[in-house]
Amino acid sequence: MRGGNKLVIVGTDDKATLDAVRWFVGEYLSDGSAGASVFSLPEGFSYISERATPPYLLSEDADAALSGFVLKSEKRSEPADGIEYVEQIYTDGSGQPVRAFAAVIRRGRGRFYTGTPEDGTVLKDMCATVTAEMEAAARSGRSGILAVNAGFFDMNGDKQPRGLCVKEGELLRPAASYPFFAVLNDGSPVIGKAVEYSKYSGDIRNAVGGRYLLMRDGKPFELGLGSDAGTERHPRTGVGYREDGTVVLIVVDGRQSGYSMGATFADMCLLFKDFGCTEALNLDGGGSSTFVLADPATGKFVTKNRPSGGSMRRIADSLIVLPPD
Known about the structure:
Blueprint: E1 2-3, E2 6-7, H1 14-29, E3 47-49, E4 56-58, H2 60-65, E5 70-80, E6 83-91, E7 97-105, E8 111-115, H3 130-139, E9 146-149, E10 165-167, E11 170-173, E12 180-184, E13 189-192, H4 197-200, E14 204-209, E15 213-216, E16 219-220, H5 228-231, E17 236-241, E18 247-252, H6 265-274, E19 279-283, E20 291-294, E21 301-303, E22 318-322
Antiparallel strand pairs: 1-2, 3-4, 5-6, 6-7, 7-18, 8-22, 9-20, 9-22, 10-11, 10-14, 12-13, 12-14, 15-16, 15-19, 17-18, 17-19, 20-21
């Protein structure tokens, strides 16, 4: 439908609309050099999702928050049955590299466990690296396949998580005002706002807190547009999941010119969408962002990314993927 200087593309549902936009841009407006992202629209175009609260408009502000990632190389391996490890190298709109590290865990093929210092339940004034938390869990008989850092924490205070922390059904820290990622007793993943915690509180086996819901119902949600937190590029860690319960973990390195420049929230949203996720949550990033994988041959815990501080930061909690029960 054409009216004035606007072209409106309407589909039977959001997926159909986005597919139509992707086709239209690729067919008529692209020189073929850009990536095929449905959100990387040319100047003057916008995509509106009315399900987000408030409605999310991808326009000039969001264009500025997208770094123009184009995938250049990808390596995939399977460290365990039903669990895929993915390394990706992108270039951004300036030709600078961006490195992403991801794990795709099919439902029932891995169990999520909240890693803590010394694998304990006392968090006050306690911190440890992701590797140290994996080692502590292994000493307790829970040898992990992989892990990433998890919740934001009071780095300059008592070191406790700022949001939800549940370990094997025990509430260690309340949700407060932070959104969360949880795995229920039946293995179902859940991402929710703090006010939604009460709906699941009696059924949560393990959970960690985050900040900013990147996706809800397959739509961009809280991308931090207009704030430094969302639109500046930094190392990032996030968790998302598909409709079938497959969970995706992503770490993006940043703050390292010539190696990896980092990502905005909008960039992270696109990465999760490319992995098929409909829900996604931003976890602690910056110098905390860490991805550790157990070497399938030796069992040794190997840091796969390059933390921006030059070494692994001591953190409050982590998300460890164990073999299924």
